[in-house]
């Protein structure tokens, strides 16, 4: 992955302190509004029993103990996860089921886990090969276009085995910093490409935008066929929609 997609912090961990005899009611209440779901599992929670302490002041109406006396009672620490968008619902459900007028609880926003979704893929060749051969490999793997494969720099260079495919010129810095020898992309602009060549040994291979995306169409079609079977006929349109469609003669004139 050249530039992983940053995950969204859309999950909370709730920590609720409740007398053991009321813990099941609190769990049931928050589960009912959507807490406690992890993947294909529901009603997920973790708990441990400890000792809670509090001192009720004038104006309080303690469920346990009396005004002006420090109370120490057994409490369960109940942990559940819930989508961030359900904070208000979980809070309301927890309060309605909790015996205390002032329940003790914490809400922790969870950091998103690493993801394998993002821009760019790092691949490895079976063995090193000259850059000229690598460019031919790329050209042969993609549908033909008038643009073909543009490769600035020395064709005498080599690709030692690792390359990046499908990004954009905003990722040139990431490609230069990666342990790769070639960067296959589309839509490179003049100045970013020129500046990259002056600062990095990572070879650039620029292909037509349409050609770089077309292979994904068959992958998407396979996913749909696998999911829906014969109930959803799927066909991949093979019409080339590349707008740069005029061939250029060797002498420089256009046909």
TrEMBL record:
InterPro entries: DUF34/NIF3, DUF34/NIF3_sf, N-reg_PII/ATP_PRibTrfase_C. Keywords: Metal-binding. Transmembrane segments: none annotated. A divalent metal cation binds at residues 209, 213. GO terms for molecular function: metal ion binding. It holds the Pfam family DUF34_NIF3. The keyword Metal-binding applies. Gene3D superfamilies: 3.30.70.120. PANTHER family: NGG1P INTERACTING FACTOR NIF3 (PTHR41774:SF1), PTHR41774. Belongs to the GTP cyclohydrolase I type 2/NIF3 family. Homohexamer. This is GTP cyclohydrolase 1 type 2 homolog. It comes from Mycobacterium xenopi 4042.
